[in-house]
């Protein structure tokens, strides 16, 4: 799955009442496994077309998690689909850079749905 996605990808995932949106910040190797660095947005959408429209319209999407490092197991526990790619800005990478510099490098094994409090 590492080759399917790259930094800057917007990913949509389904929840009971609609769709959520993630953004790939980086996919890094840690030993023999990948670590998925993602941002999660607060906005929820009625369907995929609304999510795509929000991305292409240039509206500012509010992040709920500006960075979380996920294990492969945690990332793969939620089915996602790529809907767009856009270059990341320095502002969008602040949380990731802080994680890289903090020395602890916590990687979550919880799904993004659990981390967001979604079902």
Can you give a write-up of this model?
The protein is of the alpha+beta class and 119 residues long. The chain is built from 4 helices and 5 strands; from the N terminus they run βββαβαβαα. It has helices spanning 48-57, 72-76, 94-101, 112-116; strands at residues 9-15, 18-30, 33-41, 63-70, 81-85. It has a 5-stranded antiparallel β-sheet with strand order 4-3-2-1-5. A hairpin with a 2-residue loop joins strand 2 (18-30) and strand 3 (33-41). The relative contact order is 0.24. The mean pLDDT is 91.
Short summary of the structure?
This protein is an alpha+beta fold. It is built from 4 helices and 5 strands.
Keywords, separated by commas or semicolons:
5-stranded antiparallel β-sheet, 119 residues, 35% strand, alpha+beta
Q: What's the total helix number? A: 4
Strand order in the sheet with the most strands: 4-3-2-1-5
Total beta-strand segments: 5
Helix % is 10-25%
List the helices and strands and how they pair.
Elements: E1 9-15, E2 18-30, E3 33-41, H1 48-57, E4 63-70, H2 72-76, E5 81-85, H3 94-101, H4 112-116
Antiparallel strand pairs: 1-2, 1-5, 2-3, 3-4
């Amino acid at each position: 799955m590492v080759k399917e996605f790259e930094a800057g990808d917007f990913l949509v995932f389904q929840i009971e009442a609609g769709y959520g949106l993630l953004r790939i910040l980086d996919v890094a190797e840690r030993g023999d496994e990948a670590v998925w660095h993602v941002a999660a947005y607060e906005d929820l959408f009625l369907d995929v077309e609304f999510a795509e429209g929000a991305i292409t319209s240039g509206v500012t999407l509010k992040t709920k998690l500006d960075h979380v490092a996920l294990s492969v197991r945690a990332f793969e526990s939620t089915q996602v689909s790529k809907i767009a790619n856009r270059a990341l800005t320095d502002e969008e990478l602040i949380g990731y850079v802080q994680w890289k510099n903090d020395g602890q490098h916590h990687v979550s094994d919880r799904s993004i749905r659990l981390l967001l409090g979604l079902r």
